[in-house]
Amino acid sequence: MRVKCVLCDKVESIDSYSLTAKQLRKRRILTYMCDECNERIKRRTVERKKTGNFRLFREKKKHKHL
Fold it and tell me: Which structural domain range is residue 33 located in?
């Protein structure tokens, strides 16, 4: 299966029966990032966390009592 990285527009070939390929076929909204872009984002995120100015906004879960 041929996929295109959303950040650098590099076209790569992945195994058609891999988990990533199956997820991309099942949910079209998922996007593919090449390994280099994924590592770059991971590295920069860790650097921003170390500065102390990084906040991760997560949705608060509401508990329903029966």
Answer: 2-51
- Give one DSSP letter per residue of 31-58, joined into a string: ----HHHHHHHHHHHHHHHHHT------
Is 59 inside any structural domain? no
Q: Structurally, how many domains does the chain consist of?
A: 1
Phi and psi, residue 34, nearest 5°: -70, 165
| HSE value, Cβ hemisphere, 13 Å, CA-based, for 6 | 8
pLDDT tens by residue, 3-23: 999 999 999 999 999 999 999
Query: Would 41 be classed as within a structural domain?
Result: yes
